[in-house]
Amino acid sequence: MKRKRVRQKKQHPGERIKNFDEVVIGYTEKDAVEEARRCLQCRDAGCRKGCPVEIDIPGFIKFIKEREFGLALETIKKNNYLPAVCGRVCPQEVQCEGRCILKKKQEPISIGGLERFVADYMLKRMPGQNPPIVPQVSRTGKKAAVIGSGPAGLTVAASLSELGHSVTVFEALHEPGGVLVYGIPEFRLPKKIIKKEVEYIKSLGVDIKVDVVIGKTLFIKDLFDMGFDAVFIATGAGLPKFLGIPGENLNQIYSGNEFLFRINFMKAYMFPEYDTPVNVGERVFVIGGGNVAVDCARCARRMGARVTVLYRRGRDEMPARSEEIRHAVEEGIEFRYLVSPVGFVDDGNGNVEAVKCIKMQLNDPDRTGRRRPVPVEGSEFVIEADTVIIAIGQSPNLLVSVATPDLEVSGDGVIKVDGDGRTSMKGVFAAGDITTGTATVIKAMGAGKIAARAMHEYIERKGNGRKEIAGRNRT
Amino acid sequence: MYEISDNKQLAPGYNLLKINAPLVAARIEPGQFVVLRIDERGERIPMTVCDYDREEGIISMVVHAVGKTTKRLSILKPGEKILNVAGPLGVPSAIKKYGHVAGVCRQGTAAALYPIMRAMKEEGNRVTVVIGAKSRREIIFEEEMRAFCDRVIIKTDDGSAGSRGYAVHGLTELLKEDRADLVMAIGPTTMMKTASKIAIAHGAKVLVSLGAIMLDGTGMCGACRVTVGRKTRFACVQGPEFDGSLVDFDELKRRQRMYLKAEKISLQAFEREKETETQKTDR
Ligand SMILES: Cc1cc2nc3c(=O)[nH]c(=O)nc-3n(C[C@H](O)[C@H](O)[C@H](O)COP(=O)(O)OP(=O)(O)OC[C@H]3O[C@@H](n4cnc5c(N)ncnc54)[C@H](O)[C@@H]3O)c2cc1C
Ligand code: FES
Questions:
Q1: What is the pLDDT of residues A137-146, one digit of tens each?
Q2: Where are the domains positioned within chain B?
Q3: Do A253 and A357 contact (CB within 8 A), yes or no?
Q4: Is B4 a pocket residue for ligand 2 (Cβ < 6 Å)?
Q5: What is the pTM of this model?
Q6: Choosing among A149, A171, A174, A264, which should be mutated to test the B contact, i.e. which has the most B CBs within 10 A?
Q7: CATH fold of the domain at B2-89
Q8: Would the pLDDT of A166 be above 90?
Q9: Who's near A367: CB < 8 A, 6+ residues apart?
Q10: What is the chain B residue with the closest CA to A348?
């Protein structure tokens, strides 16, 4: 039984570079069932082990085969709150699909595609609301605060709410979703999907307060004073890194975050209908090799620019999701490997005019197995540019830790936690990028789930302790 | 949503806007700002808070109507609402006992200087303020300053109030006769650059509040980056106040001009829209 992988429908590259609509259109019901039928239903399934949250992948695929889409979604949702998101943005090639047995002989099952299909299918049928998976438990009268509304924060909010606690989420920006709304572009993850997920979480009774910057508007101490029994920190890794080379503050040099924030979050691609501007120009260079770099390149392309990505290592070392690199190439984006910028040239008016680069070569693998790039002496060259986007990584957000001296952090601002997300402060938990540095949506979500369980235990134990004391006082 | 509780014109192009934002009002300190957005399509802009009423939950700011967003803010009526106000942001001013503190400002920035000087006075400093303006009409916050300042010096470009000259001239004249321990300059970038030079020449420390372009205001984008002492700093989280003797003002001036073209397009589109609206209502 050898069948070829069923492809998801996509917008044609020539068409899609003219809009910000989603590139992948997804499976039809018929295609999904056909793709599901390729699954061998391995008993000791590799895919499941490759999944950071161990979704019962053969299980949900079997339900798709049987057209039991509701049950398929239920199976996924036991481990993953955000299937519509993860089906779109997980690096499946190094997780589930990378371990699929079919990979040896043909192409692996499109697990991401199927996950997405099920989530979308059900979202469409339940306008405005997902089916509640866990029956509503009676309210416990306990309160939990969640700081940050990215995938980690939303997961914890949903989990604790389903466990019966009253949850309030505090978000610094004007819309919930974290990187899912301010970073990842519309053409990869439509905002309306996050909106539906957020609506669902609100339907569980979660209160989301935007415009509240913890560490500025309110402090962690205030949250306890306000009666919250436990606090969860999921503030992410959103601080842009710069190269520290001459000319970096010239006009038209953006951080990847600023570029995406303007285009995605503030909708600068619809300027002047929307008020926030962005300057793109004709010739754009993006520096970096991760998801942020590729997303920036593809946004700039859609704004009409000719775009080249400069990466200091090789194609195989690029951390970006491989499907997106493929999409970017289809869209006419050029990739130049083993190149690193060393400085920027001023056009005389304070705008960047050119990038000074140097060629790199890869050393033998270091202890982590990664090959370190080193400059090739005398190989400098200069390329003309209208805009440069620096997307070489982000570091943890600092506002909470700076304002909370009791919270232990390591040198780069990563909040220290144990295996269950407990921080150095009693009743304060953390997970996601703020505890790991930039990682993935699914890892943030998975760690959030574990932390939610630990928080629940903490809250319950704390509550019981109180009751006991009260009981003793009475006798 | 945040309700406008008052809006009045102080001088042509300058309005005092009061907004109901209890969480911000409870915590804000002199020198801090908020980032606000009027509606769904609006941009996020930073606004220095010039006064606050913690009990009433109200913050005040002076809006200088130059672009689309500030023009829209200046015509909001009490009872109308704006979508987002986040804050307080930035590091509060370092209010300490310095001795003699001299403040310098121009026109609308008197509002930003006001709470800082008031706190400096409360801290036991002797305070002098130099207010510069194009003419008498553009002077705001003079009465408020006089209420607590040891001395207020007025400078106008045309001599219609105080003596003729710029605020920085006033600063030089002051420092010649009365040494200051700290100069606090808030205003156009060129003015702050000159004020810093003057302060240094007279052996005073100098602090400036930088009006960098901002987006999120929480350190996540780097739009606000400035060079201070040869190092890149984010004005929104590490500022907006910095040691004026270390700031690269020329770079800041350049970066402030980054969206001039876009700002013009935005404003023109807005004014066209407003025109057709008034024509419609006229009819
Ligand atoms: C452009 C881009 C593309 C990416 N692409 C992928 C991809 O394809 N696949 C993938 O798996 N991963 C991808 N990632 C990584 C992934 O998005 C992150 O790992 C994930 O979002 C981390 O989730 P989080 O909940 O920890 O934090 P975040 O999503 O960063 O959310 C943190 C939230 O906390 C808020 N916050 C911060 N400080 C405060 C404060 N003091 N008070 C209140 N709120 C605060 C922030 O505003 C933000 O909303 C990408 C990242 C970026 C930037
Ligand atoms: S405004 Fe974005 S980092 Fe300062």
A1: 547 889 999 9
A2: 2-89, 100-256
A3: no
A4: no
A5: 0.94
A6: A174
A7: Elongation Factor Tu (Ef-tu); domain 3 (2.40.30)
A8: yes
A9: none
A10: B254
